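Sample 1 of the test manifest.
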Amino acid sequence: MPFMKGKAPIRRTLNYLNAGRLVLKDKIKIFSVAYNIIGQNNQGAKDFVFWYLPQIQYKNPDVQVATLKNLTPSPFIKCYFEDGRKILVDVDNKSKEDILEHLIKTVGKSKAVLEQEAIAAEKKDNPANFGIGCERPCICEIYGQVPCPGVVPLPKFMRGKYRNATD
Amino acid sequence: MLSQNSLLKRTWPMLVQSMEAHRKPRWLPVAKSKIYRIPKRPVIPEEERLELMRLHNNYKTQMRSIRRFYHEEMIKERSSRESASSEMSKRIEAEEWVKCVELNDSWNKQVAAEREERRKHEVAALEEYALKRMEALDKLKEAKIAKAAEEIRKQKELSKTFITPETIDAAIDHAIANPVDYNFAIDLKGNKYEGRDTQITRNQGKQEKAASANA
Protein backbone atom coordinates (compact mmCIF):
# COMPACT_ATOMS: atom_id res chain seq x y z
CA MET A 1 0.00 0.00 0.00
CA PRO A 2 1.49 3.29 -1.10
CA PHE A 3 1.78 5.99 1.51
CA MET A 4 -0.65 8.57 0.20
CA LYS A 5 -2.30 7.06 -2.89
CA GLY A 6 -5.89 5.99 -3.41
CA LYS A 7 -8.54 6.09 -0.75
CA ALA A 8 -7.03 3.57 1.70
CA PRO A 9 -4.71 6.04 3.52
CA ILE A 10 -7.80 7.73 4.96
CA ARG A 11 -7.76 4.92 7.52
CA ARG A 12 -4.73 6.51 9.12
CA THR A 13 -6.35 9.91 9.67
CA LEU A 14 -7.40 10.88 13.16
CA ASN A 15 -10.83 11.93 12.00
CA TYR A 16 -11.49 8.50 10.52
CA LEU A 17 -10.21 6.67 13.58
CA ASN A 18 -12.28 8.83 15.89
CA ALA A 19 -15.40 8.21 13.80
CA GLY A 20 -15.42 4.50 14.74
CA ARG A 21 -18.75 3.51 16.25
CA LEU A 22 -17.90 0.18 17.82
CA VAL A 23 -16.82 0.61 21.45
CA LEU A 24 -16.65 -2.83 22.98
CA LYS A 25 -18.00 -3.64 26.41
CA ASP A 26 -15.52 -3.36 29.29
CA LYS A 27 -15.52 -7.10 29.93
CA ILE A 28 -14.33 -8.00 26.44
CA LYS A 29 -10.60 -8.57 26.40
CA ILE A 30 -9.91 -10.18 23.02
CA PHE A 31 -11.57 -9.52 19.68
CA SER A 32 -10.54 -11.95 16.95
CA VAL A 33 -11.51 -12.11 13.29
CA ALA A 34 -10.92 -15.21 11.19
CA TYR A 35 -11.30 -14.95 7.42
CA ASN A 36 -9.89 -16.12 4.10
CA ILE A 37 -8.64 -13.88 1.36
CA ILE A 38 -10.35 -15.72 -1.49
CA GLY A 39 -14.01 -16.41 -2.09
CA GLN A 40 -17.00 -14.14 -2.46
CA ASN A 41 -18.36 -15.16 0.96
CA ASN A 42 -15.20 -13.79 2.58
CA GLN A 43 -15.35 -10.42 0.88
CA GLY A 44 -17.35 -8.75 3.65
CA ALA A 45 -15.05 -10.02 6.39
CA LYS A 46 -12.02 -8.96 4.38
CA ASP A 47 -13.38 -5.46 3.86
CA PHE A 48 -14.35 -5.32 7.52
CA VAL A 49 -10.77 -6.05 8.53
CA PHE A 50 -9.43 -3.55 6.02
CA TRP A 51 -11.75 -0.65 6.82
CA TYR A 52 -13.09 -1.06 10.36
CA LEU A 53 -10.38 -2.86 12.31
CA PRO A 54 -8.20 0.28 12.66
CA GLN A 55 -11.16 2.13 14.10
CA ILE A 56 -11.96 -0.69 16.51
CA GLN A 57 -8.39 -0.91 17.75
CA TYR A 58 -8.21 2.86 18.15
CA LYS A 59 -11.45 3.04 20.07
CA ASN A 60 -10.56 0.05 22.27
CA PRO A 61 -6.89 0.45 23.17
CA ASP A 62 -7.15 -2.10 26.01
CA VAL A 63 -8.55 -4.89 23.83
CA GLN A 64 -6.36 -7.35 21.96
CA VAL A 65 -7.48 -7.38 18.34
CA ALA A 66 -6.33 -10.47 16.48
CA THR A 67 -6.80 -11.58 12.88
CA LEU A 68 -6.55 -15.20 11.74
CA LYS A 69 -6.02 -15.24 8.00
CA ASN A 70 -6.59 -18.31 5.83
CA LEU A 71 -7.04 -20.66 8.77
CA THR A 72 -10.79 -21.26 8.64
CA PRO A 73 -13.32 -22.82 6.28
CA SER A 74 -15.80 -19.97 6.80
CA PRO A 75 -15.25 -16.49 8.26
CA PHE A 76 -16.26 -15.69 11.86
CA ILE A 77 -15.65 -13.19 14.66
CA LYS A 78 -15.03 -14.36 18.21
CA CYS A 79 -15.02 -12.19 21.34
CA TYR A 80 -13.49 -13.44 24.59
CA PHE A 81 -14.76 -12.04 27.89
CA GLU A 82 -12.62 -11.63 30.97
CA ASP A 83 -14.57 -14.33 32.82
CA GLY A 84 -14.00 -16.93 30.12
CA ARG A 85 -17.25 -16.53 28.23
CA LYS A 86 -17.09 -16.37 24.45
CA ILE A 87 -19.41 -15.08 21.81
CA LEU A 88 -19.15 -16.31 18.25
CA VAL A 89 -20.51 -14.31 15.31
CA ASP A 90 -20.80 -16.00 11.94
CA VAL A 91 -20.05 -13.42 9.23
CA ASP A 92 -20.30 -15.67 6.21
CA ASN A 93 -21.34 -13.80 3.06
CA LYS A 94 -22.23 -10.59 4.94
CA SER A 95 -21.26 -7.07 3.97
CA LYS A 96 -18.96 -5.11 6.25
CA GLU A 97 -21.71 -2.65 7.16
CA ASP A 98 -24.03 -5.48 8.22
CA ILE A 99 -21.28 -7.00 10.34
CA LEU A 100 -20.54 -3.69 12.05
CA GLU A 101 -24.20 -3.00 12.79
CA HIS A 102 -24.64 -6.45 14.31
CA LEU A 103 -21.50 -6.13 16.42
CA ILE A 104 -22.60 -2.73 17.73
CA LYS A 105 -25.88 -4.30 18.74
CA THR A 106 -24.39 -7.36 20.44
CA VAL A 107 -20.89 -6.69 21.80
CA GLY A 108 -20.75 -2.89 21.66
CA LYS A 109 -21.74 -0.46 24.36
CA SER A 110 -25.19 1.00 23.88
CA LYS A 111 -25.66 4.62 22.89
CA ALA A 112 -26.95 5.66 26.31
CA VAL A 113 -23.93 4.20 28.10
CA LEU A 114 -21.57 5.91 25.67
CA GLU A 115 -23.24 9.26 26.20
CA GLN A 116 -23.03 8.87 29.97
CA GLU A 117 -19.36 8.03 29.77
CA ALA A 118 -18.69 10.99 27.52
CA ILE A 119 -20.35 13.32 30.02
CA ALA A 120 -18.34 11.83 32.89
CA ALA A 121 -15.11 12.20 30.95
CA GLU A 122 -15.90 15.77 30.05
CA LYS A 123 -16.53 16.74 33.66
CA LYS A 124 -13.15 15.45 34.75
CA ASP A 125 -10.94 17.70 32.70
CA ASN A 126 -12.84 20.46 31.05
CA PRO A 127 -10.30 23.04 29.91
CA ALA A 128 -12.75 25.75 30.93
CA ASN A 129 -12.55 24.79 34.60
CA PHE A 130 -10.30 26.81 36.88
CA GLY A 131 -9.27 26.71 40.52
CA ILE A 132 -7.08 24.59 42.76
CA GLY A 133 -6.03 21.36 41.04
CA CYS A 134 -7.17 22.52 37.61
CA GLU A 135 -5.08 23.55 34.69
CA ARG A 136 -5.19 27.20 35.76
CA PRO A 137 -5.66 28.34 39.33
CA CYS A 138 -7.41 31.59 38.46
CA ILE A 139 -9.58 32.89 35.66
CA CYS A 140 -7.50 36.06 35.69
CA GLU A 141 -4.80 34.20 33.74
CA ILE A 142 -7.02 34.34 30.66
CA TYR A 143 -6.42 37.25 28.36
CA GLY A 144 -9.29 39.68 28.48
CA GLN A 145 -10.47 38.79 32.00
CA VAL A 146 -10.17 41.17 34.93
CA PRO A 147 -6.78 40.67 36.59
CA CYS A 148 -6.66 39.76 40.25
CA PRO A 149 -6.77 42.92 42.41
CA GLY A 150 -3.67 41.70 44.25
CA VAL A 151 -1.69 41.94 41.02
CA VAL A 152 -3.27 44.96 39.40
CA PRO A 153 -5.64 47.27 41.33
CA LEU A 154 -9.21 47.19 40.13
CA PRO A 155 -10.47 50.13 38.15
CA LYS A 156 -11.84 52.84 40.38
CA PHE A 157 -15.49 52.37 39.48
CA MET A 158 -15.35 48.87 40.89
CA ARG A 159 -13.77 49.82 44.20
CA GLY A 160 -15.92 50.54 47.21
CA LYS A 161 -13.56 53.22 48.36
CA TYR A 162 -14.49 55.31 45.36
CA ARG A 163 -17.98 54.00 44.70
CA ASN A 164 -19.27 54.69 48.16
CA ALA A 165 -17.33 57.86 48.64
CA THR A 166 -19.41 60.72 49.98
CA ASP A 167 -18.15 64.15 49.47
CA MET B 1 5.44 20.29 29.77
CA LEU B 2 4.61 22.31 32.82
CA SER B 3 7.05 24.99 33.75
CA GLN B 4 8.35 25.17 37.32
CA ASN B 5 6.68 28.47 37.87
CA SER B 6 3.29 27.18 36.82
CA LEU B 7 3.76 24.11 39.04
CA LEU B 8 4.48 26.37 42.00
CA LYS B 9 1.45 28.43 41.21
CA ARG B 10 -0.75 25.33 41.08
CA THR B 11 0.47 23.81 44.33
CA TRP B 12 0.99 27.04 46.29
CA PRO B 13 -2.65 27.54 47.28
CA MET B 14 -2.98 23.89 48.26
CA LEU B 15 0.03 24.01 50.56
CA VAL B 16 -0.55 27.32 52.28
CA GLN B 17 -4.11 27.70 53.35
CA SER B 18 -3.84 29.34 56.76
CA MET B 19 -1.98 32.26 58.25
CA GLU B 20 0.78 31.35 60.69
CA ALA B 21 2.51 33.40 63.37
CA HIS B 22 6.08 34.32 62.73
CA ARG B 23 8.44 31.81 64.27
CA LYS B 24 12.10 31.52 64.83
CA PRO B 25 13.67 29.28 62.21
CA ARG B 26 14.87 25.95 63.53
CA TRP B 27 18.50 26.61 62.90
CA LEU B 28 18.79 29.78 65.00
CA PRO B 29 20.07 29.35 68.53
CA VAL B 30 18.19 30.38 71.67
CA ALA B 31 17.71 34.11 71.89
CA LYS B 32 20.30 35.88 73.99
CA SER B 33 17.72 37.20 76.41
CA LYS B 34 16.30 33.69 77.08
CA ILE B 35 19.53 31.71 77.53
CA TYR B 36 19.31 31.49 81.32
CA ARG B 37 15.53 31.36 81.63
CA ILE B 38 14.39 28.13 83.26
CA PRO B 39 10.67 27.41 82.86
CA LYS B 40 8.96 26.55 86.13
CA ARG B 41 7.52 23.07 86.41
CA PRO B 42 3.76 23.14 86.77
CA VAL B 43 2.67 22.02 90.21
CA ILE B 44 -0.52 19.99 90.26
CA PRO B 45 -1.95 18.80 93.53
CA GLU B 46 -2.54 15.08 93.84
CA GLU B 47 -6.33 15.38 94.18
CA GLU B 48 -6.58 17.58 91.13
CA ARG B 49 -4.37 15.25 89.14
CA LEU B 50 -6.57 12.29 89.97
CA GLU B 51 -9.70 14.24 89.16
CA LEU B 52 -8.26 15.41 85.83
CA MET B 53 -7.22 11.88 85.00
CA ARG B 54 -10.71 10.62 85.74
CA LEU B 55 -12.25 13.31 83.56
CA HIS B 56 -9.79 12.66 80.74
CA ASN B 57 -10.34 8.94 80.91
CA ASN B 58 -14.06 9.45 80.81
CA TYR B 59 -13.77 11.80 77.85
CA LYS B 60 -11.49 9.45 75.95
CA THR B 61 -13.71 6.42 76.54
CA GLN B 62 -16.83 8.22 75.44
CA MET B 63 -15.19 9.68 72.36
CA ARG B 64 -13.75 6.34 71.44
CA SER B 65 -17.11 4.62 71.72
CA ILE B 66 -18.78 7.32 69.62
CA ARG B 67 -16.07 7.14 67.02
CA ARG B 68 -16.26 3.40 66.88
CA PHE B 69 -20.03 3.50 66.57
CA TYR B 70 -19.91 5.85 63.60
CA HIS B 71 -17.08 3.95 61.99
CA GLU B 72 -18.89 0.66 62.22
CA GLU B 73 -22.06 2.20 60.97
CA MET B 74 -20.25 3.65 57.98
CA ILE B 75 -18.71 0.30 57.13
CA LYS B 76 -22.05 -1.42 57.42
CA GLU B 77 -23.76 1.15 55.27
CA ARG B 78 -21.07 1.04 52.64
CA SER B 79 -21.09 -2.73 52.40
CA SER B 80 -24.85 -2.83 52.10
CA ARG B 81 -24.81 -0.13 49.43
CA GLU B 82 -22.06 -1.84 47.50
CA SER B 83 -23.73 -5.19 47.55
CA ALA B 84 -26.97 -3.63 46.39
CA SER B 85 -25.34 -1.72 43.53
CA SER B 86 -23.16 -4.65 42.50
CA GLU B 87 -26.17 -6.96 42.54
CA MET B 88 -28.06 -4.45 40.44
CA SER B 89 -25.25 -4.08 37.94
CA LYS B 90 -24.75 -7.82 37.85
CA ARG B 91 -28.42 -8.38 37.15
CA ILE B 92 -28.41 -5.76 34.40
CA GLU B 93 -25.32 -7.27 32.90
CA ALA B 94 -26.76 -10.77 32.97
CA GLU B 95 -29.91 -9.53 31.29
CA GLU B 96 -27.88 -7.79 28.65
CA TRP B 97 -25.80 -10.89 28.09
CA VAL B 98 -28.88 -13.02 27.60
CA LYS B 99 -30.29 -10.50 25.16
CA CYS B 100 -27.06 -10.32 23.20
CA VAL B 101 -26.72 -14.08 23.01
CA GLU B 102 -30.28 -14.40 21.80
CA LEU B 103 -29.71 -11.78 19.12
CA ASN B 104 -26.47 -13.38 18.09
CA ASP B 105 -27.97 -16.85 17.95
CA SER B 106 -30.74 -15.71 15.65
CA TRP B 107 -28.17 -13.97 13.44
CA ASN B 108 -25.98 -17.08 13.36
CA LYS B 109 -28.95 -19.27 12.53
CA GLN B 110 -29.92 -17.02 9.66
CA VAL B 111 -26.37 -16.91 8.35
CA ALA B 112 -26.12 -20.70 8.57
CA ALA B 113 -29.36 -21.10 6.60
CA GLU B 114 -28.13 -18.69 3.96
CA ARG B 115 -24.85 -20.52 3.75
CA GLU B 116 -26.60 -23.86 3.31
CA GLU B 117 -28.64 -22.39 0.48
CA ARG B 118 -25.55 -20.94 -1.12
CA ARG B 119 -23.63 -24.18 -0.77
CA LYS B 120 -26.46 -26.06 -2.46
CA HIS B 121 -26.38 -23.64 -5.38
CA GLU B 122 -22.64 -23.90 -5.58
CA VAL B 123 -22.68 -27.67 -5.62
CA ALA B 124 -25.36 -27.68 -8.32
CA ALA B 125 -23.35 -25.23 -10.41
CA LEU B 126 -20.25 -27.34 -9.96
CA GLU B 127 -22.09 -30.48 -11.02
CA GLU B 128 -23.46 -28.76 -14.09
CA TYR B 129 -20.05 -27.50 -15.01
CA ALA B 130 -18.53 -30.95 -14.65
CA LEU B 131 -21.31 -32.53 -16.73
CA LYS B 132 -20.85 -29.93 -19.43
CA ARG B 133 -17.17 -30.58 -19.56
CA MET B 134 -17.68 -34.33 -19.78
CA GLU B 135 -20.20 -33.88 -22.58
CA ALA B 136 -17.86 -31.64 -24.50
CA LEU B 137 -15.11 -34.21 -24.10
CA ASP B 138 -17.41 -37.00 -25.35
CA LYS B 139 -18.39 -34.92 -28.37
CA LEU B 140 -14.78 -34.28 -29.21
CA LYS B 141 -13.99 -37.99 -28.99
CA GLU B 142 -16.93 -38.89 -31.21
CA ALA B 143 -15.89 -36.35 -33.79
CA LYS B 144 -12.40 -37.76 -33.80
CA ILE B 145 -13.71 -41.31 -34.29
CA ALA B 146 -15.99 -40.21 -37.12
CA LYS B 147 -13.14 -38.45 -38.85
CA ALA B 148 -10.94 -41.54 -38.57
CA ALA B 149 -13.74 -43.76 -39.94
CA GLU B 150 -14.17 -41.46 -42.90
CA GLU B 151 -10.45 -41.57 -43.58
CA ILE B 152 -10.48 -45.38 -43.47
CA ARG B 153 -13.40 -45.54 -45.88
CA LYS B 154 -11.62 -43.25 -48.32
CA GLN B 155 -8.44 -45.24 -48.14
CA LYS B 156 -10.35 -48.46 -48.72
CA GLU B 157 -11.89 -47.03 -51.87
CA LEU B 158 -8.51 -45.85 -53.04
CA SER B 159 -6.96 -49.21 -52.34
CA LYS B 160 -8.65 -50.61 -55.49
CA THR B 161 -6.36 -48.48 -57.62
CA PHE B 162 -3.19 -49.40 -55.78
CA ILE B 163 -0.40 -51.04 -57.79
CA THR B 164 0.16 -54.59 -56.57
CA PRO B 165 2.71 -57.22 -57.70
CA GLU B 166 0.01 -58.68 -59.95
CA THR B 167 -0.81 -55.43 -61.69
CA ILE B 168 2.70 -53.96 -61.82
CA ASP B 169 3.35 -55.10 -65.39
CA ALA B 170 0.17 -53.56 -66.69
CA ALA B 171 0.95 -50.34 -64.81
CA ILE B 172 4.44 -50.19 -66.30
CA ASP B 173 3.02 -50.79 -69.76
CA HIS B 174 0.46 -48.08 -69.22
CA ALA B 175 3.09 -45.62 -67.98
CA ILE B 176 5.33 -46.29 -70.96
CA ALA B 177 2.42 -45.93 -73.33
CA ASN B 178 1.36 -42.54 -71.85
CA PRO B 179 4.38 -40.43 -70.95
CA VAL B 180 3.68 -37.22 -69.01
CA ASP B 181 5.80 -34.17 -69.48
CA TYR B 182 5.66 -31.67 -66.54
CA ASN B 183 8.06 -29.15 -68.06
CA PHE B 184 6.77 -25.75 -69.09
CA ALA B 185 7.95 -22.23 -69.86
CA ILE B 186 6.54 -18.79 -69.14
CA ASP B 187 7.06 -15.71 -71.25
CA LEU B 188 7.05 -12.09 -70.04
CA LYS B 189 3.28 -11.82 -70.38
CA GLY B 190 2.64 -14.84 -68.17
CA ASN B 191 1.66 -17.26 -70.92
CA LYS B 192 2.40 -20.86 -70.04
CA TYR B 193 3.86 -23.22 -72.64
CA GLU B 194 3.66 -26.83 -71.49
CA GLY B 195 5.97 -29.57 -72.64
CA ARG B 196 9.68 -29.61 -73.30
CA ASP B 197 9.44 -29.75 -77.09
CA THR B 198 6.49 -27.48 -77.76
CA GLN B 199 7.06 -25.22 -80.73
CA ILE B 200 6.62 -21.51 -80.06
CA THR B 201 5.98 -19.14 -82.95
CA ARG B 202 7.45 -15.65 -82.45
CA ASN B 203 4.53 -13.63 -83.67
CA GLN B 204 1.91 -15.57 -81.89
CA GLY B 205 1.39 -12.69 -79.40
CA LYS B 206 1.18 -10.07 -82.14
CA GLN B 207 -1.43 -11.99 -84.01
CA GLU B 208 -3.50 -12.21 -80.89
CA LYS B 209 -3.26 -8.46 -80.38
CA ALA B 210 -4.32 -7.77 -83.89
CA ALA B 211 -7.24 -10.10 -83.49
CA SER B 212 -8.37 -8.31 -80.36
CA ALA B 213 -8.00 -4.92 -82.09
CA ASN B 214 -10.08 -6.10 -85.05
CA ALA B 215 -12.78 -7.38 -82.76
